[in-house]
Design brief:
By secondary structure, this protein is of the alpha/beta class. It has helices at 16-26, 34-42, 46-53, 55-67, 86-95, 105-111, 128-142, 154-166, and strands at 5-10, 30-33, 74-77, 96-102, 145-148.
Length: 167
């Protein structure tokens, strides 16, 4: 069994969790969602955590959760804000191949209809477009591979993830 990990990063709505589960099945790997890890550790939903303790606390809690990971043979879906922590991203890179599921801003907006409850970290005074523009270069910085997902079905994105892993 291939013990290497596949780490999915990208904007909310890019398909990290949805495509990650299916890609894990196809590649005979486990699946792990770091948002669920964070919720479990904090005993709080992501949006409640952001609302009650603030963005900076959320970033630190997310980093701590990521740094606790010690897994193999797994597709790891990360939270969209993981790229704000260099330590967390370096740890993830040490665990496997980082694949960025790229979305255009308009596609992200069309795919997500629960912005206020989903647990998306947007800094005070910032818009979703500000968040998008701020994150884009960070995703690109840490990506080993980039998959453009705008026109893809879930199956097409999964196929591209598998191909990217085999490179």
């Amino acid at each position: 069994m291939d013990k290497s990990n596949v780490i999915l990063i990208g904007m909310p709505g890019s398909g990290k969790s949805t495509c990650g589960v299916i890609a894990a099945k196809v590649m005979l790997k486990n699946f792990f969602d770091t948002d669920l890890l964070l919720q479990g550790l904090e005993q709080s939903r992501l949006q409640e955590l952001i609302d009650s303790k603030g963005v900076e606390y959320f970033y630190k809690a997310e980093e701590k959760a990521i740094l606790s990971l010690n897994i193999e043979a797994t597709v790891i879906a990360t939270g969209g804000s993981v790229i704000y922590s260099e330590k967390a991203m370096e740890h993830l890179r040490s665990l496997g191949k980082v694949i960025y599921l790229h979305l255009e801003y308009d596609t992200m907006i069309k795919r997500i209809n629960n912005f206020t409850t989903r647990g998306i970290v947007v800094k005070k005074g910032s818009t979703l477009l500000d968040m998008y523009n701020e994150r884009m270069p960070l995703y690109e910085k840490y990506a080993d591979e980039i998959i453009y997902c705008d026109k893809n079905t879930v199956e097409q994105t999964v196929e591209e993830i598998v191909k990217a892993v085999q490179k």
